[in-house]
Amino acid sequence: MKYIKTFLVFVLLFTLFGCVKINKFDPNREGVNAAEVVTLIDDLVVETLDEKKVIIVRSFYENLEEKEKPKVTNLEKLVDLENQI
User: Fold this and answer.
1) Are residues 64 and 40 in contact, defined by beta-carbon separation less than 8 angstroms?
2) What is the chain's mean pLDDT, rounded?
């Protein structure tokens, strides 16, 4: 019976707090690394052109440490998207 109660508590907690959707284009998000910027640029290419998202991804790139910036291998795609705006 103890295990069943514990399981139900975990299910309740997961139901209440575990399904929070994370907005990957949140401009206030901190700790974005080079791999995430690469993924975000690829996502922008697939999605419809959204000026706000392009600006957010550019700011993520600009806020990377200098040693992280060379890891963003698809920066030319971001530049192309910026030119389309």
Assistant:
1) no
2) 84
Dihedral of the alpha carbons of 65, 63, 33, 41, in degrees to the nearest 10: -130
Determine, yes or no, domain membership for 7.
no
Residue with the two structure tokens 């600009």 = 62
Nearest to 40 by CA among 78, 80, 82, 83: 78
Range of the domain at 65: 22-84
CB contact burial 64-77 (16+ within 10 A = b; e otherwise)? beeeeeeebebeee
Tokens standing for residue 83: 């030119």
Task: Record the pTM.
Answer: 0.66
17 in a domain, yes or no? no
Number of domains composing the chain: 1
φ, ψ for residue 73 (rounded to 5)?
A: -85, -10
